[in-house]
Specification:
heterodimer, A: about 1000 residues, alpha+beta, Immunoglobulin-like, five-stranded antiparallel sheet, four-stranded antiparallel sheet, 20 helices, about 25% helix, B: about 375 residues, mainly alpha, 21 helices, about 0% strand, elongated, Acidic fibroblast growth factor intracellular-binding protein (chain B), FIBP (chain B), calcium ion binding (chain A), C2CD5 (chain A), C2_domain_sf (chain A)
Chain lengths: ~1000, ~375
């Protein structure tokens, strides 16, 4: 069934001069959709043409509507020679295809949803005209309308109406009625950059062919996923992730994964379900100050104070210490396959120090324990369904309260593959099989942990030459789907009745309890009694890839934790050999990463990591592993002990050891103070140690352990040589400057953001750094790079302290021999400069640790107040004067020669364009998301042959990213939105040829367009 | 740390006013970093030179990108492009600072043809004024850009500048003065005029814009009105009709005695004896210069050398006679009405005289200094 697309081209502005002789341009517009092209008239000699065209109508198949972008190309008419291209606009029509009636575009229209409203299917506004060789070249004003006749044929190829969210949570204003489960799709194509035709066409033609192809493939993947969702009976995809694998000569793979769900709109007053997230926030916000004061006795009534508690165990990314050897053998058969070997591990967390538990032997299906007694699962159909699904994976990172019953731990799997030519792109079986294998493995790891589902699931690749590392990771957990139950009952209703006998269910610490029975532990692990309820068993460290679940009890505040590792690789090896080398090295890399992470965690005096993300990147000479997470202290878990250096073999270096020990202690103390752990800690220690744990014994135990069995206590750091000393020094992160809180989660656990800043200033930022990595001391150098990048971010934001940096995301590429490119994405939340600062005391008390910064902070705040008031005055002046804006001033009076400087120019303050906020978060601090207007996914290529003149590679990148953000904002605004949430940048590939003064960059960005309203302070409270 | 790419791009363009000022002042990135370092920024924020340099370079790249947009400030605002997201106050700051003028530099540029030849000579200006060459170039280019755009626009020049470049009134008036002087090609570079600073010219130019231009409210004569109807109204042009009418004031040459009498009777006792006697003795010279100047202004060469004439014929002789500027003001205060009185039969000419003397008096007083 067709859809009808109507396009009207109104005008252009600020076009570039295309005709040098007359300094103007004769512009016209070509509008193309699929195979059809329309043209406007030529508007002669103007840089601001007014076409005001008729409506151009395209009648197209709806599958085509989903796949094909609408291409608007501006041309310069030339009588005697070929017309020149000015630039293009690619319009993704998908946001216009969601019929409001179907999936409810907005809670605001909840009541009238049965009446299809045309409001949502119109796009209009000024869109930047972009050229791959010149960047932005003016803007064009367009109106696009889509009329869709919905297709109910079951053989249809289209899936209009399925709404996509990259938001990894329940979108605001909706509730999830049911979860259909994991959906995935993979499309393979040749990369035009590597086809023969590329040798004869211009760079512009080549870039545009590529951009168009990416756009089409992206549409196709979404359409196919949409079809699956419809088959499953869902109406939306949340937590949608789409990745491009640029394999080079072997082609281009576009992968999409997400969670199919049935969304229903909540009513506006929307309570619980409206925002799981918000609830969590508010919970944290309001309660956390109190939580520091909670004595163990109070803890029993946990529901009242909803804070975060700690979960349990596990962490899988790294092979925990156990036994590289043992594992090797179990996998030997894999490695013998020359082409590819895969390795994987699941770990329960090893409690850092104590017992790491890696499951010793077979982790393949062999040890799948029977899923834990199904008590929690009873009676909930959806859960059973999930369980029965081929892939019980959910890509969301945040879940409603009560959804997660237990967190098992992080599970991950990696596989090294050798890329080969994809012969039949219609049947991309190889790639599908690769992923199938790896998903099965992840699933089996989760089962080994006694968990039925995997939350926060992600997939990544890293490609170097013909070798490709596939990674998948997630958090094994046991969940209870209560969405069929009225959401209000979530916590109390059904679940209680089902398991009345188990009082644990209602405890906030429940999430941390281990999901398996002690007897059937699949691997050695150190367990202790839950410090909150004293009933459940908890591991000593919990590591997960999801956001901290709502309602966990957290002490102090969370902070960023990162382990970085770099292993050299022989550059000369190729093909199979290289694949084998990488494959053999990966377990060591993961093990080291894990060890570093755990030791850092202990040095900070914390016992849990959330939102863990491990990235392994391969390059010609190095393999780099980065693990980033947010460390925090869960009240339910035992207090970690500080790592102790020991060097049994070299006793003469006592003094050195002492020094290191001292360093560690100092770092530990600093962290305690900085993150407010002291009070809680002492309390916990007092109560805890004598009665429930034997953490003091840890060291002794560890020493007794047999090293070969893999139970070496990671709490003891052996110093055998100089390098080990380096390693220890790496454990001690330089302190985050006062006034900054840095995490990679949505909010800082334990810090009540919303109550601190009601009208925050939001700033999504992209940081790109590329430099050399020396062969010697690469690890140390890498560490320094990261420290430098973090510090430069603090320095950049120095004037907007106090500042919270959230959702910090790192990605590493090793593009050339000895080059490393680090891309950082994050959202800085700073006090809005114009805010009246009644919030000031709040900031002072909660942010300030102690000590030196105190006085400084106070000054800072005073400054704020002053500037705030003066700004307000200025603003009111402006407002008063505004009506005069366009009226010429009266002739200057005879006397007054000069106006006072105070009122200068205020008359000319233009009405500000409504700013478009972009955040990497799923929520907008200080605002409420009212409507989702669609998912956008852009792919841009920018090329330049005058890199030096553009200010070097940095200048080139900076202007490119600036332009890309500008284009994103323009599209958000044209769709009627005023913000983008869940902003992502998944690709940033930079190629540079200094000899030709040429460079090229590819960027893939996107996110969810929303319309949001600023919360008034009253509402917010 | 060696690196090839080092950028930080926020959704909202990050502007540091302090670094922006250093850029506007023409410092190179390294110079700016040095300045900041001397101000103690490193200790204040616990940073090292690498970080500072990286940050400064980042800002400089942003400014470099912004510079093109700043050439047409309207593009920064609501009707402008999407490239930069900058709040209104910061936009205002960016524009205002970018168009900032140093009086000493403008003084050098004043009266010169705004051609690329002169742009090359700016290094001399830079040497003389101790303002960096880059800053001089920026100011030169800004003047040229604004001049080019508003030259042909009808209406009030200050408003035109304000609307097109979004500058503050104060700054717009500065540019208006420069453009006015350039359009009318006033001679300002003669040696004798070197002692005049920009604020003198600024004052005089605005006096003329206000009282002598075609759009000024003094447009009196009928002839003048009919002419301007067919022309584009702009306050950049001195009112031709008015200059033409000015020839009539030569009658005063014939009535010199009466004039002298009127003025002297009023001034007696108000001036010191010494000045009074000088005034009395050389009244003829003083008065003749003023009247002749008026009579010849309709010749464009005379108009162009207005400042030279004023200095040569009025300022210098008076200075030799050691008049103070108070003396001068007193003299002019009584001289003008005396003239009016003598024209009582011809009220039109009286008005023309008054319109002429208003500007001349004000200018003379202003430029009467060392």
């Amino acid at each position: 069934m067709p859809g009808k697309v109507k396009v009207k081209i109104l005008a252009g502005r600020n076009l570039p001069v295309m005709d040098r002789s007359s300094d103007t341009t004769d512009a016209y517009v070509e509008i193309k959709l699929g195979g059809i092209t329309h043209k406007t008239d030529v508007f002669r000699k103007s840089l601001n043409p007014q076409w005001n065209s008729e409506w151009f109508i395209f009648e197209v198949d709806d599958a085509e509507l989903q796949d094909e972008p609408l291409q608007i190309r501006l041309m310069d008419y030339d009588t005697y020679s070929a017309n020149d291209a000015i630039g293009k606009v690619y319009l993704d029509l998908n946001p216009l295809l969601v019929t409001p009636g179907l999936s409810g575009r907005g809670i605001a229209r909840a009541e009238t949803c049965s009446v299809p409203s045309s409001g949502g299917t119109v796009l209009s506004g000024w869109l930047p005209v972009y050229d791959t060789m010149h960047g932005m070249r003016g803007e064009v004003s367009v109106i696009v309308k889509v009329e869709l006749f919905s297709d109910v044929n079951k053989f249809r190829q289209s899936s209009c109406g399925v709404q996509f969210f990259s938001t990894p949570a329940t979108p605001y204003g909706f509730k999830i009625q049911s979860i259909q489960g994991f959906v995935k799709e993979l499309v393979v194509n040749d990369d035009p950059e590597y086809q023969w035709i590329d040798k004869i066409r211009t760079p512009r033609a080549s870039n545009e062919a590529r951009q168009t192809l990416f756009s089409q493939l992206s549409g196709e993947v979404r359409r196919k996923i949409g079809l699956k969702v419809l088959e499953l009976g869902g109406n939306a995809v949340v937590g949608y992730q789409q990745m491009f694998d640029l394999e080079g000569v072997t082609g281009l793979v576009v992968r999409g994964i997400g969670t199919a769900v049935t969304l229903a709109r909540c009513h506006f007053d929307g309570n619980s379900a409206v925002t799981w997230f918000k609830d969590q926030h508010h919970g944290n916000g309001r309660e956390s100050p109190r939580c520091t004061a909670i004595s163990p006795v109070d803890v029993i009534k946990p529901l009242v104070s909803s804070t975060i508690t700690a979960p349990v165990v596990v962490h899988g990314t790294t092979p925990s210490r156990p036994t590289p050897c043992a594992r090797r053998s179990s996998e030997s058969e894999i490695n013998t396959t020359p082409k590819a070997s895969s390795l994987s591990d699941s770990f329960g967390s090893s409690g850092g120090g104590i017992s790491s538990n890696c499951r010793p032997t077979a982790h393949r299906q062999a040890s799948v324990p029977v899923p834990p007694s199904n008590t929690y699962l009873n009676g909930v159909d959806v859960t059973r369904n999930l369980d029965a699904l081929e892939y019980p994976f959910l890509t969301m990172k945040t879940y409603p309260p009560g959804f997660i019953v237990h967190v098992g731990g992080t599970v991950s799997a990696r596989s090294v593959k050798l890329l080969d030519r994809i012969n039949n792109s219609e049947e991309p079986e190889t790639r599908d099989n690769w992923w199938t294998e790896i998903r099965m493995e992840v699933r089996s790891h989760a089962r080994a942990l006694g968990c039925s589902v995997i939350l926060g699931y992600e997939e990544h690749t890293s490609i170097s030459e013909e070798v490709c590392v596939l990674s998948a990771s997630g958090t094994a957990a046991i969940v209870k789907l209560q969405h069929e139950v009225d959401t209000k009952d979530v916590n109390h209703g059904k679940s209680n009745t089902v398991i009345t006998e188990d009082s644990k269910v209602n405890l906030p610490c429940r999430v941390c309890h281990i999901p398996y029975s002690k007897a059937s532990i699949p691997f050695p692990i150190k367990l202790s009694r839950c410090a909150v309820c004293r009933k459940g068993k908890v591991p000593d460290v919990l590591i997960a890839t999801i956001e901290p679940p709502t309602g966990m009890l957290v002490s102090g505040r969370g902070c960023l934790i990162q382990a970085r590792l770099c292993r050299p690789k022989r550059a000369e090896s190729r093909g199979d050999q290289q694949a084998k080398e990488i494959s053999d090295g990966l377990p060591f890399l993961e093990y080291e990463l894990h060890r570093q992470l755990i030791n850092k965690l202990r040095t900070k005096g914390m016992n849990a990591i959330f939102h863990l993300k491990v990235q392994v990147s391969i390059g010609d000479r190095h393999v780099v592993g980065i693990a980033t997470g947010t460390a925090l202290f869960l009240s339910a878990l035992p207090t970690p002990s500080l790592p102790k250096p020991s060097n049994p073999s070299i006793s003469s270096k006592q003094s050195k050891r002492g020094r290191i020990h001292k360093l560690l202690i100092e770092a530990h103390a600093a962290s305690q103070e900085r993150y407010g752990l002291n009070k809680q800690l002492n309390k916990v220690n007092d109560v805890e140690e004598p009665k429930w744990t034997d953490s003091d014994d840890t060291d002794e135990d560890a020493n007794d352990l047999d090293l070969t069995a893999g139970n070496k206590d990671s709490c003891v750091i052996e110093i055998d040589d100089i390098e080990d000393i380096d390693v220890i020094e790496l454990l001690i992160d330089p302190e985050t400057p006062e006034g900054f809180d840095v995490v990679n989660t949505e909010t800082v656990p334990g810090l009540p953001i919303d109550s601190i800043r009601r009208r925050p200033n939001l700033q999504a930022f992209n940081r790109v750094w590329k430099g050399k990595i020396p062969t010697l001391q690469a690890a140390r150098h890498l560490n320094r790079c990261f420290e430098m990048i973090l510090r430069s971010i603090y320095f950049k934001l120095r004037k907007s302290r106090p500042c919270v940096i959230t959702n910090l995301e790192f990605s590493v590429d090793l593009p050339e021999d000895d080059e490393i490119q680090i891309t950082v994405l994050g959202t800085a939340i700073t006090a809005f400069s114009k805010t009246p600062t009644e919030v000031a005391p709040c900031i002072g008390t909660s942010l300030r640790g102690v000590g030196s910064a105190e006085s400084e902070m106070i000054f800072h705040l005073e400054d704020d107040v002053q500037s705030a008031t003066s700004n307000e005055q200025a603003a009111s002046t402006a407002r008063v004067n505004q009506p005069n804006r366009h009226i010429p001033l009266p002739p200057p009076s005879n006397q007054g020669l000069l106006r006072t400087p105070g009122d200068k120019a205020k008359i000319f303050v233009q009405k500000e364009r409504q700013p478009v906020d972009i955040v990497t978060l799923i929520h907008l601090p200080g605002s409420r998301v009212e409507r989702y207007l669609g998912h956008l996914n852009f792919f841009f290529i920018r090329e330049s042959t005058s890199i030096r003149e553009d200010g070097g590679l940095s200048g080139f990148m900076q202007s490119f990213i600036t332009e890309v953000l500008g284009i994103v904002r323009a599209h958000v605004s044209a769709l009627g939105g005023n913000a983008m949430v869940s902003y992502f940048m998944t690709q940033c590939v930079l190629l540079h040829n200094p000899h030709k003064n040429q460079g090229q960059c590819l960027i893939n960005v996107g996110g969810d367009v929303v319309q949001a309203a600023r919360c008034t302070p009253e509402k917010d409270v | 740390m060696e690196c090839s790419v080092d950028v930080f791009v926020g959704n909202t363009t990050v502007i540091d006013p302090e670094i922006y000022q250093l850029w506007v002042d023409g410092n190179s990135a390294h110079e700016a970093a040095d300045v900041l370092q001397k101000r103690g920024i490193l200790q204040q924020w616990g940073a090292n030179m690498d970080l500072l340099m990286s940050d400064v370079l980042d800002h400089y790249r942003t400014f470099h990108m912004l510079e093109k947009t700043l050439h047409t400030p309207l593009k920064l605002t609501a009707t402008g492009e999407w490239t930069f997201q900058i709040d209104g106050d910061t936009q205002q700051l960016l524009i205002e600072k970018y168009y900032e003028l140093d009086d000493v530099v403008v003084r050098e540029v004043l009266g010169k043809k705004l051609s690329s030849r002169h742009r090359k000579d700016l290094d001399e200006v830079s040497e003389k004024t101790a303002i960096s060459l880059r800053s001089c170039r920026r100011q030169f280019d800004n003047v040229k850009r604004i001049h080019k755009l508003v030259e042909e626009l009808p209406g009030h020049i200050v408003n035109n500048i304000q609307h097109n470049f979004l500058l503050s009134t104060e700054l717009s008036r500065k540019y208006a003065a420069v453009v006015f002087i350039a359009v009318n090609r006033f001679e300002t570079t003669k040696r004798k005029l070197q002692y005049l600073n920009f604020s003198d010219f600024y004052h005089c130019a605005h006096q003329m814009i206000e009282h002598w231009s075609s759009t000024s409210c003094h447009a009196t004569s009928m002839r003048n009105q009919s002419e301007t109807e067919t022309e584009i109204e702009t306050d950049l042009d001195v009112d031709r009709g008015f200059l033409h009418d000015l020839r009539e004031v030569r009658i005063l040459l014939d009535k010199e005695k009466e004039l002298k009498h009127l003025v002297c009777s009023q001034l007696k006792g108000r001036l010191t004896d010494k000045i009074y006697s000088d005034m009395e003795s050389s009244f003829k010279t003083h008065s003749r210069s003023l009247v002749l100047l008026a009579g010849n202004l309709n010749r464009s060469r005379e108009l162009r050398s207005l400042f030279v004439d004023l200095v040569e014929r009025c300022v210098e002789p008076l200075r030799q006679a050691r008049w103070t500027s108070r003396d001068l003001r007193l003299f002019l205060d009584y001289y003008t009405p005396a003239g009016v009185q003598l024209f009582k039969s011809d009220s039109a000419t009286a008005l023309v005289w008054e319109r002429y003397m208003k500007v001349i008096s004000s200018c003379l007083v202003k430029i009467y200094h060392n």
